[in-house]
Amino acid sequence: MSDEPQLAVEHVGDTGTVVAVTGEIDYHSSPVLRTGVGELIAEGHHHLVLDMSGVSFCDSSGLSTLVGLWHRARAAGGSLTLAAVSDRLARLLRMTGLDQILVVDAGTEEALARLRGGGGGGGGSGGGSDI
């Protein structure tokens, strides 16, 4: 049984919306993340920073959910940035090549600074390729 993720939303003015994610993101629990963040995008919060410091586990379903949310944010003219990912999740992103499209910052302050500077979050270190 998975530890269903919890989402704590912090709206940060015009810069973006920070969502602190805690728990596991797997096949059974990823719909919580998909629905919660999807609703924020639908409400007009298009620049999102997911604080992943509280995520204890993420499998391929979780990765798929993150990519889907990235697509939704971009389709709305926004961005999705991951912040404070664990070493394990960072390794998984590298192994799957998702570090080339998903922007990963050390923490939420760095991610918000990127947004304030207009650096959006269109792609990872590889420079914004589309999937």
Automatic annotation (TrEMBL):
<dbReference type="InterPro" id="IPR002645">
    <property type="entry name" value="STAS_dom"/>
</dbReference>
<comment type="similarity">
    <text>Belongs to the anti-sigma-factor antagonist family.</text>
</comment>
<dbReference type="Pfam" id="PF01740">
    <property type="entry name" value="STAS"/>
</dbReference>
<dbReference type="InterPro" id="IPR036513">
    <property type="entry name" value="STAS_dom_sf"/>
</dbReference>
<protein>
    <recommendedName>
        <fullName>Anti-sigma factor antagonist</fullName>
    </recommendedName>
</protein>
<feature type="domain" description="STAS">
    <location>
        <begin position="18"/>
        <end position="115"/>
    </location>
</feature>
<dbReference type="InterPro" id="IPR003658">
    <property type="entry name" value="Anti-sigma_ant"/>
</dbReference>
<dbReference type="GO" id="GO:0043856">
    <property type="term" value="F:anti-sigma factor antagonist activity"/>
</dbReference>
